[in-house]
Design brief:
The chain is mainly alpha-helical. It has a single domain, classed as Hypothetical Protein Ta1238, Chain: A, CATH 1.20.1200. It is built from five helices and two strands; from the N terminus they run ββααααα. Strands 1-2 form a two-stranded antiparallel ribbon. Helix 1 packs antiparallel against helix 2, helix 3 packs parallel to helix 5 and helix 4 runs antiparallel to helix 5. It is elongated.
């Protein structure tokens, strides 16, 4: 090699397969679907974060870090370590925003860019939860995390 980094493109085509930590898996594999949904969630949360301020921006940053680090052990479906406090942190934020949120039941709030982007993130989070549930290596802690996260995103979108 001439000192250049290897290209991201192999230029060989993929035949509907992808490499996941050295294993070749179909792009339709439930684990790949779940990882893709989590990757999409991270991207849309970054977009939402770009228009949020203060505590909401900080919460989204913390959540994005947890999702990113959960993606690292990719062959075993991502794990959010409930022992490390990820789930309890979400539940604390939910309780905090429930106290100041007047929304009861399901409400459609598209009031402004932040609410819109947070609602899009909420729907993608729900999809990620469904994809993780369909994967054969899902974990209860990941499913609980995604379930609580969608609740938190709902509350944040209505806290505007």
């Amino acid at each position: 090699m001439s000192g250049r980094a290897a290209s991201i493109s192999t230029k060989t085509g993929d035949g509907g397969m992808t490499d996941l930590q050295g294993a070749r898996l179909s792009k339709a594999d439930p684990r790949v679907e779940a990882l893709g949904a989590l990757d999409e969630l991270d991207a849309v949360l970054a977009d939402a974060q770009s228009v949020c301020t203060g505590e909401t921006e900080e919460i989204i940053e913390a959540v994005r870090n947890e999702i990113f680090y959960a993606l690292m052990p990719a062959l075993n479906l991502p794990r959010i370590d409930s022992q490390a406090g990820s789930l309890s942190r979400l539940e604390t934020w939910i309780a905090q925003f429930e106290e100041v949120n007047s929304a009861k039941g399901f409400v459609r709030n598209w009031n402004g860019p932040a609410a819109l982007k947070l609602n899009i993130a909420r729907t993608i989070c729900r999809r990620a939860e469904r994809r993780a549930a369909a994967a054969d290596r899902s974990t209860e802690s990941l499913l609980a995390y995604l379930n609580r996260l969608s609740d938190l995103l709902f509350l944040l979108s209505n806290a505007r």
